[in-house]
Design goal:
The complex is a heterotetramer, with 2 copies of chain A (84 residues) and 2 copies of chain B (154 residues). With 84 residues, chain A is α+β, with helices and mostly antiparallel strands. Chain A contains 3 helices and 5 strands. In chain A, 24% of the residues lie in helices and 23% in strands. The relative contact order of chain B is 0.23. The chains are: A alpha+beta (84), B alpha+beta (154).
Chain lengths: 84, 154, 154, 84
C-alpha cells in the first residue's frame, strides 16, 4: 500500500510517499494511526497528535476513523487543508 | 446541467477571459459574480506563499463541490481556478466565477464554493517570511469551519 | 478611509480595468469580489432594456451607500458603475467591485451595495419587446425589498 | 418650485419637469399629493394611487409624508426604483 504525505507531515517525516506492508490486524484508519505511532521516530512523534491529521483513501477525504482501508492503493495523510 | 470548469495550475489566470468563456452567448444570464483570492504580504512580513496540493484529489474535490453549487443554486455555470507553487504578494491564488439568472444565486454559488475550498480542497500554504527565517505552514482557521457550517445547517 | 469610486455612464465598463484601479499596488488585499449585472432577453422576449435615471441623485445615493459599505465591512475599497440608456441583451448594466483583507467582507460589501442599488438607486427600466409592442416599465419586486431588509435588521 | 417626473409618471403626465406655484396651505409631501390629485387630468388619475409614488427633495429620497417641503427647489416624483 502506498502512503503519501503532505505539508508539515511530509517535511517532518522527510518522505513524500512510501510503500508499506501493513500487518493483517491493521484494518481501519484508526488501526493505521496506531501502527504509524509505534514506528521509529519521527513517526511516533508526528502521529502522536493524530486526531488533527486528515486522511484520504483513493483521493477521497474520509472522516470516519473506523473506515476499512483494506484494498486501498493509496492513502494520503495531511494536516487540515488551507485552500482558497 | 452545466459542467463546472475546474483548473489546477501553476500559472496565473485571466478573470475576463474566464468570465467570457463561462457566459458565452447565453443571454439569459443576469448576474456574474467573480471572487479572486490574492496573496497578502501581511503588512510586509511575507515575501511569498508556497502552495502545495494533492494532484488528482484537488481536481476531484473542487469539481464535486462545484457540481453541488450548480445544483443547489441553479447556476448557469461555475468556474474554479486554483494555483499552486510559489506565489508573491499581490498575485492571484484562486478564482471562482459563478453565473446565474439572478444576483443572489450568483453570490451564493461563489460564496459556497469558496467556503468549501478553504477547508475541503487539498491545498496547504507555507509562509516565506521576508526576514529569511523558515516559514510556518498556515494553520486552518476555526472561522473557516464556521463559514462552512452555515451551508451545512441550511 | 477609502473613498468609493462611483460612475454613472452610458458607455460600457471594463471589469478588469476597474478591478486593477481599485486594488492598485495594495498588497494587503486578500479578496476581490466583482458583481456584474447583465441585460437578459427573458427567453428571447426582449430586444433591449431602456434605463432612465435621475442625474445627480443617482451619484449621490450610490456614493452614500458605498461609503456605508466601506465602513460596515471594513473594505479596502469599492467601485460602482451603473449604465443608463438603451442596453441590449447580453450587455452589462451594473458593476460592483469590492476589495477587502478577507473573503466574507468582500462578498458582503458587494452584496450589500447591490441590494441597496436595486431599491434605492434612482434608475427605472423599461422593456423593449422583440415583437415591437410598447414595453412595460419593470415593476419593483417584493423580493428586492426582502433582500434589503436582511441588512437593516442586523 | 420645480417638479420633475420619471419613468411612467413622466410618460403618463407627458412632462419631464415643470415649474409650479403652490398654494400657501401646501406644506408637506402629503399636501403636495393632495394638490396634484385635484389638478386636471391626467394628474388626478396618475396621483390617485399616490402611496406607491416615491419622493426626493433636493435629490434626497424622503419617505415620511409629513416632511415639510417649504423652500425646496426641486421635488422629484417617481415610481419605486428598479436599479441594479
Amino acid at each position: 500500500m502506498k502512503l503519501v504525505y503532505f505539508a508539515w507531515l511530509r517535511e517532518r517525516l522527510g518522505v513524500n510517499e512510501e510503500m508499506v506492508d501493513l500487518p493483517d490486524d491493521v484494518q481501519t484508519i484508526a488501526d493505521l494511526f496506531g501502527w504509524l505511532k509505534q514506528r521509529e521516530e519521527p513517526y511516533a512523534d508526528v502521529f502522536e497528535a493524530s486526531d488533527i491529521i486528515q486522511v484520504a483513501i483513493g483521493k477521497q477525504h474520509v472522516l470516519d476513523r473506523s473506515t476499512n482501508i483494506a484494498g486501498a492503493d493509496e492513502i494520503a495523510l495531511f494536516p487540515p487543508m488551507t485552500g482558497g | 446541467m452545466p459542467e463546472p470548469r475546474v483548473l489546477i495550475q501553476e500559472e496565473d489566470f485571466d478573470i475576463a477571459a474566464e468570465t467570457k468563456l463561462l457566459t458565452g452567448e447565453n443571454k439569459n444570464i443576469g448576474a456574474v459574480v467573480t471572487f479572486t483570492g490574492l496573496c497578502r504580504d501581511e503588512d510586509n512580513r511575507l515575501s511569498a506563499l508556497e502552495l502545495e496540493h494533492y494532484p488528482g484529489m484537488a481536481e476531484g474535490e473542487i469539481t464535486r463541490i462545484a457540481q453541488e453549487a450548480i445544483t443547489r443554486f441553479d447556476l448557469n455555470g461555475i468556474t474554479a481556478v486554483h494555483r499552486y507553487g510559489k506565489i508573491n504578494p499581490g498575485e492571484n491564488i484562486v478564482l471562482v466565477v459563478a453565473a446565474a439568472r439572478h444576483r443572489q444565486a450568483a453570490f451564493d454559488g461563489a460564496n459556497f464554493l469558496m467556503d468549501f475550498l478553504k477547508t475541503r480542497a487539498p491545498f496547504w500554504k507555507k509562509e516565506h517570511p521576508r526576514d529569511g527565517s523558515t516559514g510556518d505552514w498556515v494553520s486552518a482557521k476555526d472561522a473557516d469551519d464556521d463559514a462552512l457550517s452555515k451551508w451545512l445547517s441550511e
